[in-house]
ABC transporter ATP-binding protein
Amino acid sequence: MKLELKGITKRFGSLVANDHIDLVVEPGQVHCLLGENGAGKSTLMNVLYGLYDPSDGEILVNGKPVVFKGPGDAMAAGIGMVHQHFMLIAVFTVAENVALGNEATKAAGFLNLDETRRKIQAISEQYGFDVDPDAMVEDLPVGVQQRVEIIKALVRDAEVLILDEPTAVLTPQETDELLAIIRQLKADGKSIVFISHKLREVKEISDTITVIRRGKVVGSADPSASPTELASAMVGRSVSLTLEKKPAEPGDATFKVRDLVVVDQNGQHVVDGLSFDISQGEVLAIAGVQGNGQTELTEAVLGVQPHVTGSITLDGVELLGKSVKQVLSAGVGFVPEDRKVDGLVGTFSISENMVLDLYDKAPFAKGIGMKPAQIASHAEQKVEEFDVRTPSINAAVGTLSGGNQQKVVLARELSRPLRLFIASQPTRGLDVGSIEFVHKRVIAERDNGTPVMIVSTELDEVLELADRIAVLYRGKLVGIVPAGTSRDVLGLMMAGVPEHEAELTAQKTHEGGTHA
């Protein structure tokens, strides 16, 4: 099936998310849409899938114009979509999820799940999915849940499959398995639209690459192009993809976590007996697939988790039981994973956001009064130092791009002497140019002698920044390994395999591949 987009434009008020985009997806082709978060890739695919009406332009299937009033029309035309955040009901079985919205019935209107099970088994055998139709979705690993989403599309006879950031929540091994599945689908004549900003995967799987920047197609690229060339195409300027840093020179272990347990509202141990240290002048990266206790760990340190036991000490002082303000006053800098919800007040100005945790202290306050001139001067200095792109320090921080919002958070947290720096998903949603800047600042803080804890689901980022890597799985510490540990070992550990067993498995896999 040949798919064409001609002049697709999508406006949200004055914002033009897609600007006259042309795109052709040939039968049996893996066509990659490459661009940073916010470039307009997902919006374009939501238009294609019938979730948004285009403001201008048209969609053609096999040369004929079509109008999709909803996802049902797109599916009927042979287009399936696997969203970045899966659309599955956790308490349903695989068969029930696949049948949902496409229910086969028996006489008298009863649901015919037997037919759905048969289709799931047939597709699983054809593509080697190994999915049990009667398994509960909530019991399945993330990689298998994604296969269920693909099965949902194939059961509906999809000829074009849209995969939106499909590897964002996968371990490296699950990513390799997904890429193998994509190759099988391609060999079977299916077309794949692969949306990503991960250069390694784009180069490995794509037949052709379309680069989108700020809502426009800025060109195409060959998969043989270097990562640097692809990154430059995404951002519009040359960038360095390699972080230059000297080896760490760790000092005393001044941050210590002992037997930390965090219990959620359902009584589950989301952090389960964690113990580790971070020394002055080193970066400990917390690796793991999203949802394995990383968020709760950082929130426990900050003092916002209500049900916590164990011990968290900084410079010998117990932090557990202290308020957020007391923790910050102890010298903790904190970059939250969701800057819009937890890091900034969107309606406040940039200058106000720069002093959210310092507004009542000198030199920004005297007695009960604030000193606007000092706050403004501070903001002007930090905007220049951190290269925040804004027309004015008085602009509402919510009007800035994601990258510039993150720079405001970093500028605030790094503008005072720190005893500990924690950054959770520090580059989520940032372009490669902003990532380059953030990484340099993190290492500069390390080199200043500060213990640094980075939490990231991006394995490339973990390997780039870490001096040591702690891997979490279901709230437990699988192990702490050196920065030079291979991606294969880390991937297995992220799936819960103990360190020694992961090393043996990775070694056998490598030897098997070498001998083959």
